[in-house]
């Protein structure tokens, strides 16, 4: 069985994609597009707390920023985004700092919501698949320079 067949098969069902596909970014996106899945890239690189993680997901799927600030709101965001798609979607979650002690519990909550949203997709006979680029701790800020708040980091420079 070829790599391409493995990717296509992996994208047919909801849930987390195998970590081995992280190195096949372009191929995964191509197959997702060919299968009619919407593609959303979630940049979590600046997220240092649950609120920032939630904003990263909302921004990626173009969901209103004023949505709630808990994991129930994230589930609503992912579910409503799925309802808007014909077949479903792929979330490519970048720089997810699950290895950062300050984010470890929140990261687990988000992963739990992703699993729950995937089950919702199965129930709707759609696909919600995701792949997570796990990262360790955030780098320490430069001495004398405070890290930019997440909302400010999204503004064009």
Walk me through what this model shows.
Helix content is 42%, strand content 16%. With 157 residues, it is of the alpha/beta class. It has one domain: Barnase, Chain D (2-Layer Sandwich). It has a 4-stranded parallel β-sheet. Helix 5 links the parallel strand 3 and strand 4. Helix 4 packs parallel to helix 5. The longest helix is centred in the last third of the chain and has 20 residues. The protein is globular, with a radius of gyration of 16 Å. The protein starts with a helix and ends with a helix. The C terminus is likely disordered.
Q: What's a concise summary of this model?
A:
The protein has 157 residues and is α/β, with parallel strands linked by helices.
CATH architecture: 2-Layer Sandwich
Average pLDDT number: 87
One letter per element, helices H and strands E, the order comes to HEHEHHEHEH
The oligomeric state is single chain
Span between termini: 46 Å
Give the helix/strand class. alpha/beta
Q: Count the beta strands.
A: 4
* Count of domain modules: 1
Q: What gross morphology would you assign?
A: globular
Architecture blueprint of SSEs:
Layout: H1 3-10, E1 15-16, H2 25-34, E2 38-43, H3 50-60, H4 71-83, E3 88-96, H5 104-123, E4 127-134, H6 150-153
Parallel strand pairs: 1-4, 2-3, 3-4
For this entry, give a set of tags:
6 helices, Barstar, alpha/beta, Barstar family protein, 4 strands, four-stranded parallel sheet, 157 residues, Barnase, Chain D
């Amino acid at each position: 069985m070829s790599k391409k067949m493995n990717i296509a098969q992996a994208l047919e069902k909801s849930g987390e994609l195998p970590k081995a596909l992280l190195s096949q970014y372009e191929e995964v996106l191509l197959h997702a597009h060919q299968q009619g899945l919407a593609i959303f890239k979630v940049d979590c690189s600046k997220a240092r707390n649950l609120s920032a993680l939630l904003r990263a997901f909302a921004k990626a799927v173009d969901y209103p920023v004023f949505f709630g600030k808990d994991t129930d709101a994230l589930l609503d965001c992912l579910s409503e985004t799925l309802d808007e798609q014909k077949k479903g979607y792929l979330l490519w979650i970048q720089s997810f700092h699950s290895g950062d002690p300050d984010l470890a519990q929140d990261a687990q909550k988000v992963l739990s919501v992703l699993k729950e949203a995937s089950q919702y997709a199965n129930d709707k006979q759609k696909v919600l698949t995701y792949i997570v680029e796990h990262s360790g701790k955030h780098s320490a800020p430069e001495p004398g320079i405070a890290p930019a708040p997440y909302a400010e980091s999204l503004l064009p420079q």
